[in-house]
Amino acid sequence: MSSKIILNNQFPTTESEVESIIKNFASIDDYIAKGTRNSIKKVTLKCGKTATIKSFKIPNIINKVVYRFFRKSKAERSFEYANRLVDLDFKTPFPIAYIENKTAFTFLDSYYLCELVEADLTYRELVEIPDYPNKNEILKQFTQFTYKLHEAGIEFLDHSPGNTLIKKINENEYEFYLVDLNRMNFHDNMDFDLRMKNFSRLTPQKGMVEIMAKEYANLINQPAQKVIDTMWDKTEEFQEKFHEKQRRKKKLKALIGKK
C-alpha cells in the first residue's frame, strides 16, 4: 500500500503531522458526524488551530479501479474545489490537505482535512424550525449568496440543507460556508433553468421557496411569479424523485427481510 499526502502550503502544518492524524484516525473519538459511509472527526493541530478530518470509506469493487486510474477521489475533488472557491472569494472551511491510500491496482480509502468553522446554524435549521429568529432575512441573504455562486458559474450539486454553514457576524448580517464539496460543476454561464434546479434540494416548504424566488427575481430582474413557479416546479420534481427512491429502498429492504 502507498499513501499520497498533498498539503496546502498556505496552512501551517506538516506532512508528518497529517500522516500521524491518519494513522491514529480510528482512535480519535471527537466526532462531528458519524455515518455508515463517511465520518467526520475533530482534531487540534500543533499550530493551535482546530481542524476537521473527513474519512471516505473504501469504495465498491468497480470504483476501486475507477478512482485508482480514471477519476479523482472525493478527497482530492473536495480539496481542489475548496481551493478554487477560496480563490474566487467564496467561503468554505479552509482546505489543509487530502490523503489517499492505494495499492498498485486498486484505490482504498481517502481523507480530507480542513479548518473547523464554528457555525451558528445550517440551512437545515431554517427548514426544521418554523419560527427560527430572523429566518426571512437569512433566506434572502442565502439567496444573494447563491446568486453570486451562479454568476461565477458555480453549480454546487449538493446544494442541500446540511451543506451550507451559516455564521452570524452582525445583528443582521450572515456569512455562508459551503461544505461537502466533492460534487461541483464550473460553467462559463448558468442558464435560468439550471439556476432554478440548483435550489430544488433545499426545502419542501413552498413558503421558503417563495421567499428565495422573490429575492432571486429581484437580482436577475425577472417577474417574481415566473421565478416562483419555476423554482417550485423544480422543487416538486426533486421531491417526487426523492420519495420514489425512498419507496423503492423500503420495498427492497422488505423483500430482503422476507428471505
TrEMBL record:
<keyword id="KW-0808">Transferase</keyword>
<protein>
    <submittedName>
        <fullName>Lipopolysaccharide kinase (Kdo/WaaP) family protein</fullName>
    </submittedName>
</protein>
<dbReference type="InterPro" id="IPR011009">
    <property type="entry name" value="Kinase-like_dom_sf"/>
</dbReference>
<keyword id="KW-0418">Kinase</keyword>
<dbReference type="Pfam" id="PF06293">
    <property type="entry name" value="Kdo"/>
</dbReference>
<dbReference type="GO" id="GO:0016301">
    <property type="term" value="F:kinase activity"/>
</dbReference>
